[in-house]
Design a protein that fits this description.
mainly beta; seven-stranded mixed β-sheet; 2 helices; 7 strands
């Protein structure tokens, strides 16, 4: 399983290509850390454009995925479900897995920034 955090510092648009149904959660600050709340509808397999306001977002995937930043300010961090590098504890608790993915290969995540964004 691959865990992906998306840090957005201004309204942004991303394109996400996934091979499975994916839920994007927005992490909301709470008294003792963060709470995950579903952002929009579930994403069906295929390519979907997603508008994101400023904030922290999270999703998990069991298959390879591609994330393309079309506009805005976005930073992406990722780790496998078995990674040694853990999220800071307050974020980690909000996105903790409730189950295990399939054994074996860790899915890849490809992140691409639109050329117009860097010009």
């Amino acid at each position: 399983m691959r865990h992906v955090n998306v840090y957005v510092d201004q309204p942004s648009c991303i394109e996400l290509h996934v091979q499975e149904t994916v839920r994007i959660d927005r992490l909301q600050p709470a008294a003792d850390g963060y709470v995950a709340a579903q952002h929009g509808a579930l994403l069906a397999p295929g390519v979907t454009q997603v508008q994101l306001d400023q904030g922290i977002y999270h999703f998990r995937t069991l298959d390879d995925a591609q994330l393309r930043v079309l506009a805005g300010g976005v930073q992406v961090t990722s780790r496998s479900g078995r990674g040694k590098d853990e999220w800071p504890s307050v974020v980690g608790e909000a996105v903790a897995s409730q189950g295990q993915g399939p054994c074996g290969r860790v899915p890849t995540l490809t992140v691409e920034y639109d050329a117009a964004r860097t010009a």
